[in-house]
Amino acid sequence: MSGTADRAGYRMCTQQHKDLMSRLVVVSNRTADPRKPAAGGLAVAVRESLQQTGGLWFGWSGKIREAADGTQSGQGEVHVQTAGNVTLATLDLSREDHDTYYLGYSNDVLWPVFHYRLDLANFDTRFAAGYRRVNQLFAQKLLPLLKPDDLIWVHDYQLIPLAAELRAMGCTNRIGFFLHIPMPPPLIMAAIPEHEWLMRSLFAYDLVGFQSEADLTHFSHYVESEAHAERLSPDRLRAFNRTLRVGAYPIGIDVDDFKRLADSKEGRDMFVRMRDEYSRRRLLVGVDRLDYSKGLPQRVHAFRELLTYYPENRDSATLIQIASPSREDVGAYDNLRRQMDSLCGAINGDFGELDWMPVRYIHRNVARKRLPGLFRASRVALVTPLRDGMNLVAKEFIAAQDAADPGMLVLSRFAGAAEQLKEALLVNPYDTQGTAQAIQRALTMSLDERINRHEALLNRIRKYDVHWWSSTFLQALEDCEPNEAAASGTS
Ligand code: GDG
Q: InterPro entries attached here (predicted)?
């Protein structure tokens, strides 16, 4: 466990029953109805904290607004609805704003660069302008909904400059930001033409949280070298006339909720079906969005190496790879899809038998209630991203296991989760032979060793679960001094 998280973990042990005093306002690119079952970590964490304070959740509606005159310039009003004690406020975007802010700058600049993929970035200047415009629009529409004492929690790379825009409009509330994706090292960050503006914008927040110590180090190095930031203490940096609190707050899952799903009727039915279907085989599982950061082609290559160098796995080991569709309107995803179709077709063609196919590749979204049973029936999970902020699938796999006969996690050292989950078999996903060796080791590991490793992993994901994550972050934000230079703006 990382130093910061340990320190923060201790803080939580002493403060976890202290409720938030202020109303919580969450801002993220998209919102969700907090009364419905939440799919991802963000929705789970946000739902619980919002319900505690009867808060407000603000974001894009997911709709594109066509103006009445047929042009696409219209800027919609805010739609407000209540969901239990939570208020949801959403706005539509014009086509131009959607294409530049969301498809362009967020998905075609920030996502690839923050995942170290400079080769996939498209630095079109119209994207940056749209990104700034939509962040200004969010600030403008959010400001009238705010109360003086609200705590504002902004999520992820789509909204980096939001606090700076709010400050420029006079907002003095405490504002925190959490980056769900990795923070790249300074020289990679510097490839973004607007890198100085982006990083300076972060100093308009009171607290900035990262997934891992590595991310925090990259950010500190960037601001120390590029902005001559002064380190006031391990978690306080001063630059641009502002003091910023920073920390690593690794996101977790709701372990009990996932276990409950595994123990539900549907969870058990799925487990029994998978176990019976594969009773003569050993099952390996991968569940990811079809995204180039997830290392899917490298994973299929590693699995191919396994069948080549450890032939005892032929006619036996089966990889179920779920790759849920994602961002299909971005070009790089189309290439990846074709690459996966071809790699999986080739491995099945080269190794498959009449009664055994090595890879079952499913390019569809699978119902969440089916995942725990699938994880539990699997001997090994392959979580091998080339770069990942955290990776929640790694934690879900651990939570779903039978502690008396657990499966083994093969985890990329480049996932944020690797800082916490040291008892997994850590691999370099670019090294496909090394990954194949680790898979073989996982498949042949003794029961005792599996039990010991699983116990340690389960304890850690329990201790640092999603409730720990949100309450630790929000407590740190609430503890921030109201910022002396808050209204001066940094943009
Ligand atoms: C970002 C960061 C960080 C996946 N396929 C299906 C499905 N899933 C679920 C998984 C898991 C979630 O989606 C994916 O979470 P990840 O953490 O793997 O990844 P990102 O979506 O890239 O999220 C990441 C995360 O934010 C949180 O901070 O960990 O690093 O990139 O819960 O189970 N769920 C269903 N069907 C699928 O086909 N129902």
A: Glyco_trans_20, Trehalose_OtsA
Ligand 1 center–CA 64 separation, angstroms:
25
Q: Is residue 2 part of a domain?
A: no
- For ligand 1, the distance from its centroid to the CA atom of residue 93, given in whole angstroms, is 25
Are residues 35 and 135 both part of a single domain?
A: yes
> Which whole number is the average pLDDT over 379-404?
97
Atom of ligand 1 lying closest to residue 322 CA: 38
| Pocket test residue of 289, 292, 378, 421 for ligand 1, highest count of atoms within 8 A of CB | 289
How many angstroms is it from 484 CA to the middle of ligand 1? Answer: 38
CA 358 to chain centre: 29
CB atoms < 10 A from the CB of 81, how many? 10
Ligand 1 pocket, residue 326 CB under 6 Å:
no
Is 318 in the same domain as 425?
yes
Q: What is the CATH number of the domain that holds 28?
A: 3.40.50.2000
C-alpha closest to that of 75 among 62, 85, 65, 86: 65
Nearest atom within ligand 1 for CA of residue 324: 38
For 10, 323, 357, the CA distances from 19, given in Å and listed in that order, are 17, 39, 53
- Between CA 291 and CA 11 the distance in angstroms is 36
Nearest Cα residue to atom 10 of ligand 1: 393
Q: How many domains does the chain have?
A: 2
- Residue 213 in domain: yes
* Distances in whole angstroms, Cα of residue 399 to Cα of each of 169, 266, 292: 45, 17, 26
Look at residue 371 and tell me if it is in a domain: yes
Closest CA to 425 of 372, 380, 375: 380
Residues 142, 189: one domain?
A: yes
> What pLDDT digit, counting tens, does each position of 23-38 carry?
999 999 998 877 776 5
Same domain, 120 and 229: yes
Tokens describing residue 109 = 């600049």
pLDDT digits (tens, 9 = 90+) for 354-383: 999 999 999 999 988 899 999 999 999 999
Question: 416, 384, 362: which is closest to 295 by C-alpha?
Answer: 384
CA 391 – ligand 1 centroid, Å: 7
List the residue whose alpha carbon is closest to atom 13 of ligand 1.
40
Residues 304 and 248 in one domain: no
- Domain range for 264 is 255-463
In terms of domains, do 434 and 451 share one? yes
Q: What is the pTM of this model?
A: 0.93
Determine, yes or no, domain membership for 76: yes
